[in-house]
Amino acid sequence: MHRQKDVNPVYRDLSQPVEKRVDDLLARMTIEEKIGQMCQYSGFNEKHEALLRKGRVGSFLNVTGVENTNKVQKIAVEQSRLGIPLIFGLDVIHGYKTIFPIPLGLASTWDPDAVKKAASIAAKEAASEGTHWTFAPMVDIARDPRWGRIAEGAGEDPYLGSVMAKALVEGFQGANLSHLDTVVACPKHYVAYGGAEGGRDYNTVDVSERVLREVYLPPFKAAVVDGGAGTVMSAFNDLNGIPASANRYTLTNILREEWGFEGFVVSDWNAVGELMSHGIAGTPAEAAKEAVEAGVDMDMCGDIYQKTLDQLVREGKVSEETVDEAVRRILRIKFKLGLFDNPFISPERAGEVILCKEHLDAALELARKSIVLLKNEGNLLPLKTNLDSIAVIGPLADDHEAPLGPWACLGDLENVVTVLEGVKAKVSSNTKVLYAKGCEIEGTGTEGFEEAAEKAKAAEVAIVVVGENRDMSGEAASRSSLDLPGVQEELVKTVLDTGTPVVEVLMNGRPLSISWSAEHVPAILEAWFPGIQAGYAVADVVFGEYNPGGKLPVTFPRTVGQVPIYYNHKNTGRPPSSERFTSRYLDLPYTPLFPFGHGLSYTQFEYSNLRIEPASMKVDGAIKISLDVKNVGDRKGDEVVQLYLRDVVASVTRPVQELKGFKRVTFEPGEKKTVTFTVSSRDLAFVGRDLKWIVEPGTFKVMIGSSSQDIRLTGSFEVEPS
Ligand code: GLC
Fold it and tell me: In 10 A of CB 444, how many CB atoms?
């Protein structure tokens, strides 16, 4: 029996500790109401309203706006028996209405403080209109750029991915979840979703325990343990034979027992129901049992828990304690968010924060920082703003949609500044700006080439903006080719053949195998999908108001045939070389087109004076690594100083290099600064032969560089036996 409604129950008393309020409320709930908390639906309709009045819905996603969220919340709070408030979720991936660069672009800044700021702005805007929960950050490591969702994460490296995961969670959640300007984060997709075979979305993942622990789990651990994420989303994929949304080993043994996660797990969209398609459940009830006992607390849009869990409990096939534990986790977050105490949103807040100047300025700052200068032969860039004429060409030159990327939340196309608009705003009033689309992003039509060539001939320089449309990235957007789609490469060739110098600007969501451009085009910028301030950011970089300092968070292959290709690879017994009988291709160099960590500047940086102190450390000790960096050019600029280590001999083969530190530092012309890293045993650990984390004595090579391949200083230190 559950207690009758008393006047001021403990769960409504905000002076009581959260755990007491959870216990009191749980004790009052029927099994149907408990299961209701474990059910999430998308949008709001009559069916949902009927369930809600019975207290059988815990959350909605895609219900947005002050009016809508307050209306639906009012039904939950005032017209259901216990008045348990809803938690409203939304995909606020890289902005709510002020849209920032896609996460792969944010990672290209190598600036966690800036990225954290972007997340805090996104949270502030989303919370001001009634969203409590973002299904972000996406922290899946991706080594296969055919996978469209590489756009949503921080790239191929566990260390960079972990730093970004922590920064994003802290940005979304702020210092206290009950603050009005914060939302609870949801690192996703747990786990190893990026390891899909063939780079094909939703495909099978089968990785070793060592790769799982050293590559795919670290960013989730950083998000949950270091960042304090309040929720986690379980993934679609099969993981070593047990789907991620039915995998008790990852969802409970690792996430909860090893890491101490106390929040709740929501499945990805109908991932519970899809356990039947995976073939590990024959019925919806079996799917529900598999998922809830593995550790999935909330069923996103599957309607499986709603339809089967109460009978499973009545039949004793699922214990009520299992349900209680899931509900406890969900209620705990709702209490921490302050939803019981402040369930409604005041309309004024949204008007104060959404798309305000501070936010737009931040979007511009992040977009500038995210741009990577891939090539700048003959210092063609930066351009002068007082040129007589400039041509802006390409299917993405004046595109308002692509810069928003595949998860644009509530971003409006009308707020997007295109490259053409940015260039026009930047150049002098005497400069003639000529525009030609040239071709579509896809398709074979070249009828626009003639006009493009004419405009290029009539200009002193041509900016050609090519890449992908945003639907070629994100979910269910895997490509079998990494080439520029359609006839865009031919367009670049056509423009280059006019003899007018070309600046190629890429707008895309994955590494592209632009080998021809890399060989023939003098200047190439990687802009990713840069958000609503795209045009201003590109123009600031092209015309030198901002000196680019971004670095690649992913390797660019020469061709898709090299995939998977990533920087932190093993040495093998026959490392690639010019020798025939080594790990190489007959028909292609084995090196990437552009390496992980690559990015140029309009100035140059000199590295010197490497100090490694002490020269050796105990297993539980620490090493300080310092060096001097000097800006030897005449422009202010940022340099991302990167620290790579190599465990030269170990009981398990180790990567030839691993990123273990980085700092993005700003230098005035001529300025020299000392950059310091501290390396501890946490940075040296790896999964040993017994699958336990260990640090072994031995020699560690130190590589400091401007990219994973552009190593400027080397040294080493010893780890002594303890
Ligand atoms: C989608 C995506 C996930 C997203 C969720 C809600 O299927 O996989 O990333 O957060 O559904 O939109």
Answer: 9
Mutate to test the pocket of ligand 1, among 135, 188, 245, 473 (most ligand atoms within 8 A of CB): 135
Q: Which residues lie below 8 Å from residue 158, measured CB to CB, with a gap of 6+? A: 141, 214, 215, 216, 218, 219
Q: Give the DSSP H/E element, type plus range, for residue 352.
A: helix 348-353
Rounded Cα distance between 508 and 489, Å, is: 14
* pLDDT of residue 358 exceeding 60: yes
Give the contacts of 268 (CB within 8 A, at least 6 positions apart): 188, 189, 233, 234, 235, 236, 245, 300
Average pLDDT value for residue range 444-464: 98
Query: Domain map of the chain by residue range?
Result: 362-558, 605-720
Question: CB–CB of 383/542 below 8 Å?
Answer: yes
Interval between CA 372 and ligand 1 midpoint (Å):
28
The dihedral built from the CA positions of residue 410, 414, 418 and 423, taken in this order, carries a sign that is negative
CA 711, distance to chain mean position in Å, is 27
pLDDT tens-digit map of 137-159? 999 999 999 999 999 999 999 99
φ/ψ of residue 263, rounded to 5 = -80, -155
Q: How far apart are CA 174 and CA 334, in angstroms?
A: 16
Exposure of 536 by Cβ count < 10 A (0-12 exposed, 13-18 middle, 19+ buried)?
buried
Give me ligand 1 centre to Cα 712, in Å: 42
What pLDDT score was predicted for residue 350? 79
CA distance 245 to 188: 12
Second CATH level (architecture) for the domain 362-558: 3-Layer(aba) Sandwich (3.40)
Helix and strand numbers (H, E) in the chain are 22, 25
For the stretch 563-600, pLDDT in tens is 999 999 999 999 999 999 999 999 999 999 999 999 99
User: Annotated active-site positions, please?
Assistant: 268
Residues having CB closer than 6 A to ligand 1 are: 61, 91, 135, 188, 268-269, 475
Name the helix (H) or strand (E) containing 712: strand 711-720
Residue 6 binned pLDDT confidence (cut-offs 50, 70, 90): low
Query: If you measure from the C-alpha of residue 233 to the centroid of ligand 1, how many angstroms do you get, rounded to a whole number?
Result: 9
Q: Is the pLDDT at 611 greater than 60, yes or no?
A: yes
The pair of structure tokens assigned to 681 is 């045993």
Instruction: State the pLDDT at residue 1.
Output: 44
Considering just the CA atoms, what is the radius of gyration of the chain in Å?
27
Report in angstroms the alpha-carbon separations of 447 from 396, 437, 451, 452, 458.
Answer: 17, 10, 8, 10, 19
Measured CA to CA in angstroms, residue 288 lies from 55, 242, 279, 331, 606 at distances of 20, 15, 13, 20, 59
Q: What is the mean pLDDT of residues 428-439?
A: 98
How far, in Å, is the centroid of ligand 1 from the Cα of 269?
6
Structural element, H or E, at residue 142: none
**666-701 pLDDT per residue, tens:** 999 999 999 999 999 999 999 999 999 999 999 999
pLDDT recorded at residue 110: 98
DSSP 500-552: --EEEEEE-SS----HHHHHH-SEEEE--S--TTHHHHHHHHHTTSS------
Characterize 692-703 residue by residue with b for buried, 16 or more Cβ atoms within 10 angstroms of its Cβ, and e for exposed.
Answer: eebbbebebebb
| Residue 59 and residue 87 in contact, taking contact as beta carbons nearer than 8 Å | yes
What tens digit of pLDDT does each residue of 252-265 get? 999 999 999 999 99
Protein residue closest via CA to atom 12 of ligand 1: 91
Cα–chain center distance at 20: 36
Q: Look up the CATH number of domain 605-720.
A: 2.60.40.10
Its pTM stands at 0.98
Which atom of ligand 1 is least distant from the CA of 189?
A: 9
